[in-house]
Amino acid sequence: MVYELKFADVGEGVHEGEVLEIYVKVGDAVKVEQELLEVHTEKVTTDITSPVAGTVAEILCEVGETIEVGNVLFKIDTDGASGDGSDEPAGTTGNQVPKEADPSLFKPSTPDSSSRRKRRKRGESAPQQVAPQQIVNQKVLAAPAVRNRARQMDVDLQYVKGSGPAGRITQTDLENYTPGQVAAPARKAIKRTTQLVPGSETRIPLKGTRKTIARAMRHSKDTAAHYTYFEEVDMTALEKLRNSLKPHMEERGIRITYVALVMKCLVPALRKFPMLNGMLDETSNEIILRDYYNIGISVDTEDGLVVPVVKHVEQKSIWEIADEVIDLAGRAREGKLKMDDITGGTFTITSIGNIGGVMATPIIKTPESGILGLMKAKLRPVVINEKTNPEIAIRKMMYLSLSLDHRIVDGAVGARFINELISYMENPALMWIVDE
């Protein structure tokens, strides 16, 4: 029997993907759940695994090719399979047919498979270990703070024994980890560089993440009626809060950022002006207002802009938000985001303050109705106590760029929203007394 493995429809608007790497060749024996190829979809980079065991009879795709949902990728001969090589697809019995749309066929790259791929690409042999490695956690249980700290230490958590409930790895377990236990080699992103020859032209195919970005930005500009509102905010109080939280955060292995604090300030402002957390359903001609706050954060990666989402910000403490922001940003840069990490947003923050800039006009991430740009915070002379005792002082000031969809958010509403947001950013103590 020959089984045809097709590119499955995993939903969330994924219609096509780009083949990044193929791990097997014709004639290879494969097992159930074995990784066959790596594909970059419109949302994430994933591994496609085999739902059956057998022998690769034919490969109908190639590296660099754009594949569409429904395309046959592999033909696998299941005759004579045994053991793990049972010819029944994973999760099926008798004559049941595997579900081509089963998202379980798409597995995020694991640390081990990632390092294998890089060794294969470079033709390297496995690195020498100080001592034999032993995987003690097939499924790692650890808090985002622990995972973030492990990345900083270049430690693969599969090799760390957890002392918490159900084998959960704690900060103490990680800090007590010794080189004798041998961490897997550090995983570094493969930098893609383009060499330009003087006096020549270089053509770069528009594909992968860049193609996805181009399509999404064009769709946003073609549908949402963009307008951008600028204002400035005094960051003195927020910076003071950040500095006071820093040592307590660092004790927990968490790094606090302006983005996390602004995210917390956004919730009461969005709650007061729900149109900015809403969306326009063009099929039903309805404005949908959401009473939950899933805030996306734009992350600059080597492959382009990615927007992971912190879900239900209104239910989380500043500790949890800061931890999740760092975790999502880290996994975005490593290409390890899952589909759920990048979908379901209701509002987005984009920050380029670490690079510079005075103002910008961010493009809305449709179908959301707004995106807030955070510019670089700079020391500037400003007038303070304007109504009582005006004087000039040096303050750390930041420009805000708020782009909105004018189809559902009027200019005056956007201005009032920014004023509300600024009131929390300049008086962050208000966040703890606002009525939820």
Please summarize what this structure is.
Helix content is 25%, strand content 23%.
Molecular structure report:
The chain is α+β, with helices and mostly antiparallel strands. 25% of the residues lie in helices and 23% in strands. A hairpin with a 6-residue loop joins strand 19 and strand 20 (391-405). Helix 2 packs across helix 7, helix 6 crosses helix 7 and helix 6 (258-272) packs across helix 8 (411-426). The chain is globular, with a radius of gyration of 25 Å. The N and C termini lie far apart (60 Å).
Secondary structure topology:
Blueprint: E1 2-6, E2 16-22, E3 29-30, E4 35-41, E5 45-49, E6 54-59, E7 66-68, E8 72-77, E9 106-107, H1 111-122, H2 144-153, H3 171-175, H4 208-223, E10 226-234, H5 236-251, H6 258-272, E11 279-281, E12 286-288, E13 295-297, E14 299-301, E15 304-306, E16 309-310, H7 318-334, E17 347-351, E18 370-374, E19 378-384, E20 391-405, H8 411-426
Parallel strand pairs: 13-17, 17-18
Antiparallel strand pairs: 1-8, 2-4, 2-7, 3-6, 4-5, 5-9, 6-8, 10-20, 11-12, 13-16, 14-15, 18-20, 19-20
Instruction: Give the CA-CA distance, first to last residue.
Output: 60 Å
Q: Name the structural class.
A: alpha+beta
Percentage of β-strand residues: 15-25%
SSE series: EEEEEEEEEHHHHEHHEEEEEEHEEEEH
Strands, count: 20
Radius of gyration: 25 Å
What's the helical proportion of residues? 10-25%
Shape: globular
Q: What is the count of helical runs?
A: 8
Runs in which pLDDT lies below 50 for 5 or more consecutive residues are 83-88, 90-132, 180-192
Q: Average pLDDT across residues?
A: 81
Largest sheet properties: 7 strands, mixed
